[in-house]
Amino acid sequence: MSNADYSSAALPKLSARLETVAQWVLPGRPVADVGTDHGALPMVLLLRKQVPMAVLSDRVPALIERLRPRVQAWELQDRVSLRVGDGLSVLLPDECSSLVLAGMGAGLMQSMFSRVNPRPLGLERLVLQPNTCSRALVQNLTQLGYGLIERVLVRRIRPRSSRAVRREQGRADEILVFEAC
Fold it and tell me: Do residues 91 and 81 touch, judged by C-beta distance below 8 A?
C-alpha cells in the first residue's frame, strides 16, 4: 500500500476489546504499546489526539517495519517511536505514563514484569488484556506496587460462519487496569 493509500484511509477500526483498552489509557499523556503487532491502537489514539506521543514496540522486526509507511503517511513521525525489542526493556524512565499489553498470555506479561520492574520506568497506569488466567498476574503487580482499579469484561462478537467461530460466541476478553500506589 502506498503512502497515498494510507493518508486517504479512514482511521483504523478498533475492535470492542481495543476500544475498551483505549478508554483506560491516560488522556493527554504518552503511551507505550508493547507487543503492538498491527499498531492500530496507538495509531488511533494519536489520530484522535487522545495522546501526544506513543512508543510502539514488538520483538519482531518485520512487524515494526510494516508500520513505518503508516506513520509517515499519517505524518506521525514526530509523535511515534518505533522500537524493536523484548518487553519493557525498550522503554526509558519517565517516557510514558500508560503501558498497554494486549492480546498476549498472562504468563508472558508476568515474565516481562519479572525482568523489568515497571515502577522505576514511571508508568502510572497499566492497561492489560491477558488472554489467559490473570490471577497470578494480579498478585504479582500488587507486590510491585500497583493496585487493580478496574476489571472489565468485553464480550466477543464474531460472525457465525463456522463451528470454531460459534464456539467463541459468548466468551469475553478481560481487561485489567492498574495504577501505581
Answer: no
Mean pLDDT by 10 residues, the chain (181 residues): 46 90 98 95 96 97 94 94 96 98 96 96 98 93 97 78 52 94 94
Q: Grid cell 491477558 — which residue?
A: 130
- Reported in sequence order, the residue ranges of 131-171 that DSSP labels E, i.e. its strands, are 146-155
| pLDDT at residue 6, rounded to an integer | 45
Secondary element (H or E) of residue 98 = strand 98-104
Residue 179 per-residue DSSP state: E
Whole-structure pTM value: 0.89
Distance CA 87, CA 151 (A): 23
**172: Cα separation from own chain's centroid:** 18
From the list 122, 54, 55, the residue with the least C-alpha distance to 94 is 122
List Cβ neighbours of 98 (8 Å cut-off, separation of 6 or more). 24, 25, 26, 29, 30, 31, 32, 51, 123, 124, 125, 126, 127
Beta strands in 85-145 (DSSP E): 98-104, 125-130
Specify which residues 155 forms β-bridges with: 172
- 138 secondary structure, DSSP code: H
Q: What is the pLDDT of residue 9?
A: 53
Phi, psi values for residue 164, rounded to 5°: -60, -40
Phi and psi (nearest 5°) for 139?
-65, -45
